[in-house]
Design brief:
Oligomer: heterodimer
Largest sheet of chain A: none
Helix content of chain B: over 70%
Largest interface: A-B, 46 and 38 residues
Shape of chain B: elongated
Mean pLDDT of chain B: 91
Structural class of chain A: mainly alpha
Order of helices and strands of chain A: HHHHHHHH
Low-confidence stretches of chain A: 102-115
Distance between the termini of chain B: 67 Å
Largest sheet of chain B: none
Number of helices of chain A: 8
Strand content of chain A: under 5%
Order of helices and strands of chain B: HHHH
Shape of chain A: elongated
Number of strands of chain A: 0
Distance between the termini of chain A: 53 Å
Number of strands of chain B: 0
Structural class of chain B: mainly alpha
Mean pLDDT of chain A: 82
Radius of gyration of chain B: 23 Å
Strand content of chain B: under 5%
Radius of gyration of chain A: 20 Å
Chain lengths: 211, 81
Amino acid sequence: MRDNPMTAPSLAEAEETTLVAQSREGDGRAFGELVRRYEGKIFRLAQHVTQNREDAEDVLQETFLKAYEHLDQFQGAAKFYTWIVRIAVNQALMKLRRRRTDRTVSLDEAIDTGEDTIVREVAAWDENPEQKFSRVELGRILDTAIQGLEPSYRSVFVLRDIGDLSTEEAANALGLSIPAVKSRLLRARLQLREKLTRHFKRKGDDAFAYM
Amino acid sequence: MLTCKDFLHELSDYLDESLDTDIRAKLESHISECPNCWVIADTTRRTIQIYKGMDPYPVPPDVESRLMQALERKMAAKQKE
């Protein structure tokens, strides 16, 4: 099977497997390369979930320290990135829970299952609305929209659509059922769509009530 | 006949292309006749694309250097074991 180019790992994956193997042997430079590859993605994810700069810095550090410590438990069946995302999410959720224990809702709290999904604004967008903004402005718009989501929706959206985890992987990482992940993802996506519509809608295309 | 509510319920799976062919065909027939659902599907798809295209956050040099130092300490401790 190894000779079959269809089933052979891509160059990037092969390199990564080598880096992981070298790291396991105690090669610090190899692990440093893995850190540099993914630190930006993990930092972004940690900031989105915790909504707190200091916590995100802690999560970043704890994630890679834990990953190094438990490298022998990494099976290699999943991608290294997926594995560290799960570590990062668990660290981030722990921070969030610790901060919220005496107020607001728990992330595990049962949430309705999509019966009352509401769409309030329907307006078509410009052809390339994001090009009307600078990268910094666009980043601010996207970040602010995510910040406005409930934590339980936000975590699901961040894992699925920013962290690129599958529904099953996100359910696993968050300790949720697959239907719960799907229902929260739908709501998160619709709410973000609505928030972005305020910035991106075509001029003169007024939003109107719906459903 | 699919209602707009039915459409909305399946929207995520529709955009993720994880639906069976027959239900997908029903949804496509619905949006071809329902401008509101078409707009919702189009703008939701673009919302996801925009977020997927976001740059990773640059890690500030001081944060990265603290991380690397902590790792070096961990590696040194592991080697002693």
